[in-house]
Here is the input.
Amino acid sequence: MQEKNIKKMTEMADTAVKDLPTLNILLCYLLYKIERPVEFEQLYDIAIGTGIVNYFYYQDSIDYLTKNGLISIKENKSGVECCFLEKKGEECAKQLKSYAPKSYRDKLVLAALRYFARLKHEQEIKIEYTPAGKGYYMHVRCLDTDCDLMDLKIYAPDMTQAKLLGERIMLNPAGFYGKVIELALSNEEPQYDLTDN
Here is the structure.
């Protein structure tokens, strides 16, 4: 009896979508909300990375959506295969979205927004880790089109801390750069106490 209850609780705790029609709606909704074609590999990374989409259901859903004209897979200008939302898929996303739980819709869209933000950040900032004595240097470069806006090296006592610094910077590279500039501009000479005692 206890094993049966544990199995039932495990099934209830599993958050993966196991309903193909719901997954079809979710993928159409995702493409609708981000309002642009998504590289085939990127869509896979976003969907599977959330933990709510199972690999096999994902493959079945993509097959269904392409065969029924809700999405199409075409090469973009760079020759990379992309998923394009067709008119039929847009109607599916608009009219049937309430059949897919809002928590799943939100999680999937948020994952996509974070994914694309991370890709953008990786183009704007480069982080390298190099050994330095007993620790590591985390080398940060904020890039512009024709020059480096900032080139900074920070020492960390071990790789774990160096990686943590890098991860925190990558959360909001523009914010990090802005704070460094703000700090530099607001930095002042220390006040000296010249009072006679």
Observations:
- The chain has two domains: 2-112, 123-186.
- The radius of gyration is 24 Å.
- The domain at 2-112 is CATH 1.10.10.10 (Arc Repressor Mutant, subunit A).
